[in-house]
Description:
The complex is a heterodimer of chains A (about 700) and B (about 120). Chain A has about 700 residues and is α+β, with helices and mostly antiparallel strands. Helices cover about 30% and strands about 25% of the residues of chain A.
Amino acid sequence: MSENTISILEGNTFVVSDRRGNIDASTSEPTGLFSWDTRFLSRWVLALDGKQLAILSTDELDSYFSAQFFLAPGTGTTYVDADLSVIRKRSVGNGFHEDLTIANHKEQPVDFQVRLDVAADFADLFEVKDALPKKGTYFHHIEDRLLILGYRREGYVRETWISTTAQAAIDEHGFTFSVHIEPHKEWHACLEVDVEISNMHILHNAVRYQHSALRVRPDMQLGLAKWHQDAPEITSGWPWLGRIYQRSLVDLAALRFHSYLVPGGALPAAGLPWFMTIFGRDSLLTGLQALPFYPEILETTLRQLALQQGTRYDDFRDEEPGKILHEVRFGEMTAFEERPHSPYYGAADSTPLFLVCLDEYERWTGNENLVRELEMEARTALTWIDTSGDLNGDGYVEYDRRNKETGLENQCWKDSWNSILFADGSLARRPLAVCEIQGYVYDAKVRCARLARTFWGDPELARRLEKEAAELKRHFNQDFWVEQREFFALALDGDGRQVDSLTSNIGHLLWSGIVEKEKAEACKRHLMSDQLFSGWGIRTMAEGEGGYNPLGYHIGTVWPHDNSIIALGLRRYGYDEEAARIALAMLEAARFFEGRLPEAFAGYARNLTGFPVEYPTACSPQAWATGTPLLLIRTMLGLEPVGDRLTAHPVVPKTLGYLQMSGIPGRWGHTDIFGKGRVVVPESVDHLERLMI
Amino acid sequence: MSQQVQEFFTALATRRYEPLLHSVSGTVRWNIEGEGYWNVVINKGAITVNRDAMLPDSVMSCSEDTFLALARGVQNPLTAFLQGKLAIQGNIGLAHVFQRVFENQPGKSTHMASSRRES
């Protein structure tokens, strides 16, 4: 998000405004009040006597769900009339609540008009993203202190209810308040905005706002105080880490999505502003990153995804029995089946990742009940891998799309249309067997063999899975290995040709364990080479490949979550110092984003730009970028559950001094791990700063 | 009284157990316009149906046409809900999960139309 906007959010409801608190959305700007993937307010502009207000300051408070705007009349460029001040305090819940206070600092009474312009375009987020026109009609009602803005298309009705506590003249475009304030007194009004979906009788009572002496705040179901209390404590000799960690905790809390399938549970939405919804892949990987901190996130994610596992063949939704979903949406285009997200199943990796996460969850928590409860879903997912997942019966999971019009072109994490390229820059054609998915499948089979033997009482299945995993590993190491350049191909295309670009995907292969030992060294060498490692992180595609673009979404940018998985993979193969180097590079990059890693940043070399350049339309906060510092902490400490114990092999960058994690939850109860900083990272900012002194 | 609606619930009652609902418990009331209501009691996959006065966890209301389209699997419950064809009071999650007791859509291939490369 732009630094000129302020975002507050709660679950899938969020408000994005400018720094004055105003919303003035153009078709392409994602400002507004959004809920259920729909923009319920596209205009919310405050003026005094027809004049816009100037910013004195903005305060995002100590939370993700409220903000304060301190304003005064005047343009802010030449002078500010200090005789009046305006304070807007806003909290998001089901819609939002705004307290408007105007103070008169003069010795004389004042009279003026306050105007609040409002409008609602009810755009589907997809329409905002793609700037598409509306198909229904707008309407409005005015009642005492209440303005209702509405939109109707057949039975699809969405309304925004805007009410005020102060007397106002109301028209369809807003509220006019005639204000009189005595000397040194204040005028006050509450504005409440509710989103209303006519056939869903759960609204208007979902979130209650409570006025306290200090501020109005929604009564959140999952309190931020308890959230912080439950988190393990992180201390280090590097002040930035504490700040980055706190930012991650608050953002992860903000991205929690109250599950409507698992009562009382919350799971991470993928990211603000475009992805405030459940994504199979993103929610699973974020849950995995957060496992040593908040294991319940992964549990809720697994339960919800199990309940929405595919049960039928549905071309429009790319659904197949056993498949784990990709994305769920609730906007108008989903409603009228102009988009397939109800839910959409176009992901070939979410199913094996579901299995990997199920096993990893049990290894950390010892909660074997979940493994037993989800046995049927896990078995169905394994069947999907071997049947619908393997389109041509070659033993690899490949994807095409059933939905030829609105289905995703690429169904791996690099899901933009131009992400899978040959080394000469030409586009690979489906069906595509992308390398990291084969790694996930290998890992899923190895892990499910353990589950089958230990919990499902099925040693026969365990033996079969182990045999299949070993065969997959052998074939994969032959078929995907690009002999001349010594790395694994990004994919095999429909003709079995190697898609031969050098990409970050080989790091995921290390994480999965599918790489034969003698090939790991070459993978590590490539990952840490100047072609892939920018100094801030590993690029999605290596510099020098035909398709490389440092600003290409999946063909040259650096993705923090990608790096967190690669670092874990490097440790799996014993490349501990390289993992520490990546961890530190990421954490140092986070310094330039006030502790909050964005979804992606540009692939420019560190010695070229001196700072990481944010990718223009990146989501922030983005769930798996938020989870990245958490997984990096686990990786630097080398945390692995073994039996009922947590083992640790800390390899910590010297820059951090030391790293201590206290109160790590798991099957061992709670435990503390300490690691001393010893890895010297040459390009470290602090290292350079010390040299300059 | 619609023969088809009654037939659906009679068939559902004889099914007794739906493995896909093994982790689901709750009472769903289907309120069909002009037909009255049926309560479907799900207890970890075990299914019973009654028309008694009881307090359900979730009430779903729709027209007979919409219901029959849902039951045949040709109408997706989530889009029916988002379009306003299906009203839900209470637990929305049960509505989604209930899709699993409806029929699979007919006429959809188990194999992808073209699993070889597109030209």
